[in-house]
Specification:
The structure is a single chain. By secondary structure, the chain is of the alpha/beta class. It has one domain: 3-Layer(aba) Sandwich (Rossmann fold), CATH 3.40.50.620. Helices cover 38% and strands 11% of the residues. It has a three-stranded parallel β-sheet with strand order 1-2-3. Strands 4-5-6 form a three-stranded parallel β-sheet, with no helix packed on it. It is globular.
Length: 196
């Protein structure tokens, strides 16, 4: 499970999903867009973020077909549980609900190393770590600290150097974002005049 605002989805998100699958750390990656961010971040509409995340799925599948043996359309998908639920999104509640809904699956969670400094603020983070494996992907400028029990640092992965914040700021400056995200998402942002 890869929960994020996807505000907007970008090549860093793609890099994480592709790496998890190529390294066989997961049989599938479920992208879970939040509905309302627990820390009050302002987000584009749920419908726009869902549409862009679905475009990201296609881009991830295209990348997997080029670089690995993946041919399954089910290796990556968008899970809309949090978008369908009322109110603020909490990862622990989502993990419990999906575990009950899909008992045939064993869920784990991936976060970027930029989340480590505030992870203790996540709702019921200790219970979550006790029940579900957590993988930590390296983000440039964010070391693997503090690592908590139950977290596995993905030490040998290439760092993610792109951020959604960077893209939103770039859009306000000159709108040049084509190197930071899949082409289809950049076109969607332009067509729908997002983040201006």
């Amino acid at each position: 499970m890869f929960g994020a605002a996807f505000n907007p989805p970008q090549l860093g998100h793609q890099q994480i999903a592709v790496s998890l699958l190529k390294e066989k750390l997961a049989d599938a990656v479920w992208l879970v867009p939040v509905k309302e961010h627990p820390f009050g971040k302002k987000l584009a509409s749920a419908s726009d973020r869902l549409a862009m995340t679905q475009l990201l799925v296609q881009s991830i599948e295209d990348e997997l077909k080029k670089t690995s043996e993946f041919t399954s359309q089910s290796a990556v998908r968008v899970e809309t549980f949090e978008l369908d639920e009322p109110g603020i999104s909490y990862s622990y509640r989502t993990l419990l609900a999906l575990t009950e809904r899909y008992p045939e699956h064993q869920f784990s969670f991936v976060i970027g190393s930029d989340n480590l400094s505030t992870f203790h603020k996540w709702d019921q983070y200790e219970a979550m770590l006790a029940q579900f494996p957590f993988f930590v992907y390296p983000r440039h400028g964010f070391p693997f600290v503090p690592l908590l029990a139950g977290m596995t640092p993905m030490q040998n992965m290439a760092e993610v150097r792109v951020s959604s914040t960077q893209i939103r700021e770039q859009l306000k400056v000159d709108g040049v974002i084509s190197e930071l995200m899949p082409k289809a998402i950049a076109e969607y942002i332009k067509d729908h005049n997002l983040y201006r």
